[in-house]
Every structure is written in structure tokens, then in C-alpha cells.
Amino acid sequence: MRFPLARRDRAFLAVLAVLALVVAACGGDDDETASSSASASASATASASGSASASASASEPADEEAGDAAGVTYPRTVEHPLGTTELAEEPVAILPLFGELLGEQLIALGIEPIGALPYMSALPASSETYGLEALYDVEPIGSGFEPNLELIAALQPDLIISDDQFFASVYEPLTQIAPTYTLDLFTDDWKTNFRLVADVVGRSQRAEEVIAEYDARVADLAPDVEALFGGQRVALVQQSLPDGGTGDGGVDGARIYGRDTNPGRFLADLGIDVWEPADPGGSEIAPSTYAVSFEVIPTIDADAIIYLIEDSFMATRETIEAEPLWASTAAAEADDFYFLDFGAQVRLGGPLHKFVAMDAVAALLAGEDLGGVVAAPAPEVPETDDGPTTVLDVGADSGVTLLSQFTSFSPGLAEAVNGPGPVTVFLVSDEALGAMQAEQPDLAAALQSDFGLLDEVLQYHAVVDAALSAEDLAAVTEVMTALGEPITVEVVDGAVVLNGGQATVVAADLQADNGIGHVIDGILIPPSRAAELGG
Hints:
Layout: H1 15-19, H2 28-49, H3 52-59, E1 76-80, E2 83-87, E3 94-96, H4 99-108, E4 115-116, E5 139-140, E6 142-143, E7 146-147, H5 149-154, E8 159-163, H6 171-177, E9 180-183, H7 190-200, H8 204-229, E10 233-239, E11 253-257, H9 262-269, E12 273-274, E13 284-286, E14 289-293, E15 304-308, H10 317-322, H11 330-333, E16 337-340, H12 343-348, H13 351-365, H14 391-395, H15 403-406, H16 411-418, E17 423-428, H17 430-439, H18 441-449, H19 451-459, E18 462-464, H20 470-474, E19 478-480, E20 486-492, E21 495-498, E22 503-512, E23 515-520, H21 530-533
Parallel strand pairs: 3-8, 4-5, 8-9, 10-12, 10-15, 15-16, 17-23
Antiparallel strand pairs: 1-2, 6-7, 10-11, 11-14, 13-14, 17-18, 19-20, 20-21, 21-22, 22-23
Helix pairs in contact: 2-3, 3-8, 7-8, 8-13, 17-18
């Protein structure tokens, strides 16, 4: 079996981490940047797909396109899944709760969001090509899935756009701040949602132009897609993190995306026949989405496999190459096994991320040696042996590898463990995380389903502005965490015990350039969450 050679990609912090660190940007300098990005887009896409005009148009903001709303009169009433919304006048200051999904749609319509709730996936290197870097230049209005109503009110939005499922509980409070429109982000296809958003903001004409550009690029790629994948059934998969870390109900194996999913629809648009399990049984965790255990992997009888990887959220390329069961699949034995390095962009992205995805497909079809299907290559970064180490780096040598997979869900922890320090991090061992699935299933389920809670718990494992040794810890009775809640400390039989026995330090004083790590054998629960989580 042959896997395509890997190209070392630049590691990105997840959008969740990055967006939480930036502030709103606007004015003439930003207009110049957008214009420069549009110019770069035309040449980059021309070489990848021969569709320079589509790229340039998609990446340029629709300059002063308020005229698109000329056929819309105000006041107007719009209906949506959670109710009816009255718009007294054309909205100008628009706040999308989901940055990556709804914020991207506004950018494609030529509208700069005034803020957004950061999501959990990483932006690819080619984001600048299509103006997606504007997702960095917004005010964060919360983290995980928890919007901060005070921050939202301070931005004085004319219109809030929200998902009808994840934020149903805050819909009424949001309506007290500004007119609020909801839509089904995770069931409807991106074109349906894009048209709905365009209608409510009065940019329907622009939406049809972007969709036409998308369709034109699909048509450009179709002949070469047919040449490579014609007549093949293609499975789109990702490998779950150990112990079901992708939230697949604890299944340790793979997730398969079928025809009625965002990635499945994307491949179908390109003319690819998407494979699904013939007898999924009880593995369907969402419509056309399947979580299967490792022993099922050899039964994936698709002719080709496209595997999604993403450093911030999914199992890495090295992980998949190290799992021998993949080598026994029919696709791998036939050398029809490809890697996509923009997993979340295909799963969740709107129109602009689809252009990024098509750039990657175009590169593969052009025969470029990009290590399988990957996003546009990032600049090469020379490797050195003497670069600064982080606490997570040294933790990896002591049985702490899974924790790094979750830092993208927490701006506070990501900033602490990746910054210059000093910082002290209580590193939950892989063994402890695995035991949590079996011994504390309610806690595991809560952390997997509530990213706001996960963010709090992760921040509770870091002490910022201090590198505390085991000796330092033994001399105090509590330490204050990045979350703003204390951890109690005591010494029992020579061991440092935290929070009255929630965890014990099993490997102390892991020295890094930005601080000190201590490996612990349990999960620390913030006092404010102890009652509901049984801590």
C-alpha cells in the first residue's frame, strides 16, 4: 500500500482560539487589503482551475452593494423556524452568532460582520485568497457555544442571525437586544441557507452571483474529476480521536460522511458518487453520518477513500498512517486513498470555504505533488531542533497527547499553553481521559456536547503568569486558575493532591520554555460546576 507523501503543513490555532484574540478592524486600510486579496485570488485560481474570473469576483467584497436591496421595502416581516421577525429598516450592523458559518456568508455578500461567536475549526492557508481573513477581524462575543449577551448588546446590532438549534435557549433574550433571525444551519444545504441569509439582509442578487460562480467552477473541474473518480464509489471519512474524542458517542474508530451531509453534497456537486454503508445498523449518529468502530474499517468497500485531517480537531495524518486497519481497505490496496487537509471547511463551510476546497481539488487534478488532496500549501517553515518548547511539548513525553487535541476548544487554555508564559498547566494524562469515558460517562457526555463547559474546564487546568514547581505547590493551599476559580492544594503521603482528591500529581516539574507542567490522574472540575457535574 502506498500513501501519498506528506508535505509539512503550517500548524494553525483553531478559529476558536484565534478569533478570541483579535479586535474589530475597519476603514481604508482594510479596503486596500481586500482589494489586494482579490487581485491575488485571480492569479491563484487561474493556475489551479482556469477560472480566474470566478475567483476574483468571489473574493472581492460587493462594493456598496446596498443597491441590491432596492427591491426590498421596509418595514418588512420575515418568518423563520423560531418565529417572526420585524425589520423596521435595512440592517447595517449585522451580528452572526456562528463566525465560520454565518460570518462567512455575510463576507461573501459583501458585508463585514460586527462580531461573531468563534467556532472550533482552523482556517486554511488560502483563506486570504477569498477574504476569509476578515473572520479574524471581528469582536468575539463569547466562546464555545455560549454567547455573552452583555457583549452582544454593547455592539448595538441592527440584526442578529442565529442557528435555530444550538441557540434556541437564548433566542428570546436575543430578541430583546435586536431583531433576531434563525435558520437550520446543520440540516439544510449551504445554498439554501446562503439564499435565506441573503434575503433577510437584502443581498439576494449578490448571492445568486456567488452561487453562479460556484457552479461555473464545478463545471470547469467536472471533466478532470470524471477522469480521476469516474465510475468509482468514494467514501469520505475521518478517524475518531482515541476514546471517541470527536464526540461519536464514545466510538473509537471512524466517522463516515454520506450523501446527505455538507461534504457529501460537495463531492456530489463535483460529480463524485458518494459511498455509504449498505447496512449502517445503529451507527447513524446524524442524518447520513455514521460512527463505526475500528473493526468495521476493513469492510469499507468503496473504490476510493478521501480522508479528512485537521490538526486542531481531528486525528492527524500520522495517526491514520499508523493505523494498519486502513491498509486492508479496498481503496488503500488500489492506491486510491487521498487526504484532505481542510476537514472542517468541507464539513461546515459556506460558499467561500467551498472555493478553498475546490482550489485543493484542482491542485490534485492538475497532478501537483501536494501529498494527496490538501489545501493550498502554506509557506515552508524551516524545522529546527532548538526552538522553544511548550508545556504541551514536554507533556507528550509523559503520556499527555490527547489534551493538545482539545486546546482548540478553549481560547484561555490555548493562549496560555502556546504563549511565552510563564504558565503552570495541570496535564490530564491520556490514561485519565480514557478512564473518564468508562468511569464518568455523564461527565464525558457533558464535555462532548457542551463546548462552553469544555472551555471552562480546560481553562481551570492552567495557572497563568506563574511557573509553579511541586515544591511551590506544596507551600500553598490553593492556586488561582485562568478561569478565575481556585484549585485547592494539599500534600498527602508526599504527593500533591488537588481539590480534595479530584486528581493527584503523578509526574511533576516538566520543564518547558514557557513554564512547568504537572501530569495528573484525573479531571479537575471548577467549583461553580461541581454540583451539576458531581465533582
